[in-house]
Design a protein that fits this description.
This protein has helices at residues 24-35, 43-46, 57-61, 66-72, 77-84, 109-130, 156-166, 184-190, 241-254, 285-301, 319-333, and strands at 2-3, 47-48, 132-135, 173-177, 196-203, 229-233, 260-264, 306-309. The chain is built from eleven helices and eight strands. It binds zinc ion (ZN).
Length: 334
């Protein structure tokens, strides 16, 4: 099952934000599935094109602090978004941001952020009934309790888990984060909560692990809060990636099974990803497919409902990562 509303853009250009998230990663992925001779005629079976789920403040407050949520619903929203998308650098200059090219105010972005977070909840519900769902949005794994960071305003992953737990639909969850960057927000938000087990395989170095574990003001750097299982991969260790991930999944299973797995399926470990901060990991297209098939098969063999979200993936080539995996996965299912 694919969850993708084509009316919701990926690109941030209309807000004057130059981060290279391109519409191609959803449009071309969907086109590849539609053009597949077997899958094309079956689109009515595998594609849901409406986000019907909605989120309210209570849903956000299960994860984010009252102060932060208040700021999101106040005139300070623009400031919060500027910080979360890192649009001003340390010297106070605009960074990847050209407000003069914007056709919409920055604050309008929040509506889209909420819709995409709601899509993750819907994706999880679909996974629980259908076994597998891949949402063409979601995966804002850097957002922390008190603030947004790393292009992430709301941690939709933990919001979805806590919402479904509050509804008593699920108890235990695995979050399997295979984005190039560490799932640091997710780890910090769920630390000490044994109902949510987290695995993150990521670049050993670079953002968000390039700072000091203790910040200048003496407080701990939340990016260093460990996941249940962290698998740092050094530059040059790409050939070991899939085996290490497999061992990590087996370790996760030993911590106890779960009712649902959310897979933060970033395509940014791909060697053709264009965001400079992903250069520490350069998996080939074949290695990306091996990665995705491993996670899918591991969960499928254990009959664990799997909700995949798109997470990071930058530039004109990453759609191929999603397209090759989803063509294979949907052909397995339909
Ligand atoms: Zn990433």
């Amino acid at each position: 099952m694919i969850l993708y509303d084509p009316h919701i853009p990926v690109s941030l250009m209309e807000f004057g934000i130059q981060i290279p998230v391109r519409d191609s990663r959803t449009i071309r992925t969907l086109a590849a599935l539609q053009n597949d001779p077997h899958l094309g005629p079956l689109q009515y079976l595998w594609h849901r094109d409406r986000i019907v789920e909605t989120l309210d403040r209570q849903d956000l407050l299960r994860v984010h602090s009252p102060d932060y949520v208040d700021r999101l619903y106040s005139p300070q929203l623009e400031e919060v978004i500027t910080a979360a998308y890192e649009l001003i650098d340390a010297e106070g200059r605009y960074h990847r941001y050209t407000p003069e090219t914007a056709t919409r105010p920055l604050a309008d972005l929040f509506e889209r952020v909420l819709l995409k977070a709601a899509a993750t909840v819907q994706c999880a519900r679909l996974a629980l009934t259908q076994g597998f769902c891949f949402s063409f949005s979601g995966g804002a794994h850097h957002a922390q309790r008190h603030y947004g960071i790393g292009f992430c305003v709301l941690n939709d992953i933990v919001i979805a888990v806590r919402k479904l737990q509050a509804e008593k639909i699920i108890e235990k969850v695995w979050i399997v984060d295979i984005d190039a960057h560490k799932g640091d927000g997710t780890a910090a938000l769920t630390v000490g909560d044994n109902s949510i087990r987290t695995l993150s395989i990521h670049m050993a170095r670079g953002w968000p692990l390039d700072g000091s574990p203790i910040l200048a003001d003496g407080t701990p750097n939340l990016s260093f809060v460990p996941s249940d299982i962290d698998i740092p991969i050094e530059s040059g260790e790409e050939a070991l990636y899939v085996d290490r991930l497999k061992a990590g999944l087996q370790q996760l299973e030993r911590l106890g099974k779960a009712d649902l797995a959310i897979v933060v399926c970033g395509s940014d470990p791909y060697e053709k990803d264009e965001l400079p901060s992903t250069a520490g990991l350069r998996l080939t297209l074949d290695q990306m497919l091996e990665r995705d098939q491993l996670v899918y098969t591991f969960l499928h063999e254990r009959q664990m409902p799997a909700a995949f979200v798109m997470a990071g993936g930058y530039g004109d080539h990453v759609w191929q990562v999603y397209a090759q995996f989803l063509t294979w996965a949907l052909r397995e299912r339909y």
